[in-house]
Every structure is written in structure tokens, then in C-alpha cells.
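Below is a concrete protein record.
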Amino acid sequence: MTEFWGIFYLVWTVLCYFFAKQLFVRTRKIYLSPIIVVPVFSIVLIFILQHQFQDYYHYTQYLVTMLGPITVAFAIPVFRYRSMIQQHFRVLILSSSFAMLVGILSSWFLASLMDFDEIVKNSLLARSISIPFALVLTEKVGGSISLIPLFTVITGLAGMLLGDILLLWMGFKNRIASGAALGNAAHAMGIARARQRHELEGVIASLSMIISGIIMVVLAPMVISLIKYLVSAIARACHQLL
């Protein structure tokens, strides 16, 4: 019976994706994107069958492992624009580093403010990078492998849905700046939206996402440890003063 449900969920996810993709291509409505339609349909199905999300994830985890090669494939358009990338490489490195720092600080501050559990708090720290990088980072900072895909998808959806509005409000007209913003803030979903806006924005978003992922995996554990130490030190100082 276990093998049946494993094959069923795997086939369901693949067929649901192709259906959602065709629906999105015909309508071009952002709320009908596969990243929204497939999870919604899958959640409804899990509720109807009265199964657990852990079961679904166990049966479809092979699809998650494909995210690694997919992430590497983003390097193809980057190679085509290598001369332009070399020209703006320092700016992209700085913007990705700043985005990483803002993502960590904002997540830690809000999670602490709402008194979230330590595991949830650590899982939120990896929300602003693509899932392959986030899964690696989660193991280093003590987060939950089950929560990371959820937080990452929510972050990507928010960036994809609100990105255009924020960029318009801020008056961004530079395609490099817009692409970097979407890639850093909404990772893979930001890349999809950036490619719809302009090919150059899509390339910059791809590079920004890859750079942010590498920086987060390499430097974030050290930065997170430093932040925790500083927060604890400030808390002890305040306690002594009071």
C-alpha cells in the first residue's frame, strides 16, 4: 500500500504541475502560477485523503533533489551575459551580501518579537534563498527540514506578487537593480517574474540568487552565531541594569 501512495503522489504532483503550467501559459495570471496552484491542489487532496504532510513529502522528496540541478541550470543565461556581469560583479556581491544581512536580522528580530520556538526561528533564517541552498543552511543552523520549503515558498510568493508594486513605488527603472532586487528577495520565483519583465532582469536575478545562496551557506552560520551572541549580551546587560 505504501508503494501505491508513493507512486500516486509522485504522478499526481507531476501531472498537476503540467496542468498548472498550461493554465498559466493560457491565462498569464500570476495567481494561477504553478507555484500557487500545485500546492493548493495538493493540500486539498491531502485533507480529502486524511493523510499527513510528512507522508506526502516522503513520497515526493525525489522531486526536491532535482532542485539542485535546476539551480545550476540558471548559470546558462548568466554565461551569455558574462561580460556585463564582470562589469557589475562588485555591485552584485555587495547587494547580495546586504540582502543576506537584512534577511537574517529581520527574520531573527520578528521571530524573537513573536516568541517563536528556537527551531522555527532558525528555520526562518534561511527563508530568503532558494530551497537547495536553504536545505544545506538549515542543517548548519539547527532548523527544520520540513519547515524550510514552506517558509521559502511563502517568501518567494510574497516577493513575486508584491515585487512589481514595490519597484514601481520606489521608482526603480534600472533593470540591473530591479533584477537584483527580485533575485535576492524572492529567489526562484523572483527570477520567473524578472524574466517576464525583461531578459536582462532575469539574468541578473539568476546571478543574484546564486550569489546570495553561496554567501548564505558559507557565511550565514558565523553571522547567525554572532547575532545570537550579541542579542544574548544585550539581554544580559539590560537585565543587570533593571
User: Anything to note?
Assistant: The two ends are 61 Å apart (CA to CA). The longest helix spans residues 199-241. The chain has a mean pLDDT of 78. Residues 172 and 178 are 7 Å apart (CA to CA).
